[in-house]
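Aggregate trends can hide what the representation actually does to any particular protein. For completeness, the protein is quoted in full, as a sequence line and a line of structure tokens.
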Amino acid sequence: MNLSPIPKVRQMNAGDFLKNHMRAAKPVVLKDFVDPRSPALQKWNYDYFKSIAGDHQVNIYGSEIESLDRVASKPVRQSTFSEYLDQILAAPTEERLFLFNLLTIKPELKSDLQYHDVTNGKVLKWLPFMFFGGEGSVTRNHIDIDMSHVFITQFQGIKRIWLFPWEQSDLLYKLPYNFHSLANVKEPDFDEFPGLKYINGYEAVISPGETLYIPSGWWHYI
């Protein structure tokens, strides 16, 4: 398996983005997709989230590596949002929150996020989710079921993401009638999944304020 670094750029205009990335289906890290003056970059941290929604009950998910042959993972337990944030700050853990929509619980947060629409109004729409995971947590290799273009922005800590184009789905052993891979790409078993030897993918490590653009239909392992 070969992974190439994803370029990081600033001040990309809509014309270049549409031509060189969205239409060409090429990922890129946008260092200023979120406006540097956006209140979210100053306000959004764990202490702030605990103060506004700490008592909210959340579903907590465990290791997805243990459920690679299943269509969906089930929550392993519940806790308050505040307790979970304290947990992931205290020590590494595989436990994470999945598709937690804090922006629905606290819709006033939407006004905190200001961004540059590099799609020029063509595809970018407001469908916000937040993802939380401590050091050691993993989201298994998958394609988004709605085949959307994804802009994933990091706000605290760092995140490593591997991307693979749709055309390599057979080599990734796509689960039939679903959007997940049967193979563990981080610790590949080449005897069971020999196609992984021939995968050509991309890697991004994103820090706070950076946004990774994932083209529609691309696999992503986080």
In short: The chain has a mean pLDDT of 90. Residues 2-221 form a domain with the Jelly Rolls fold (CATH 2.60.120.650). The two ends are 16 Å apart (CA to CA).
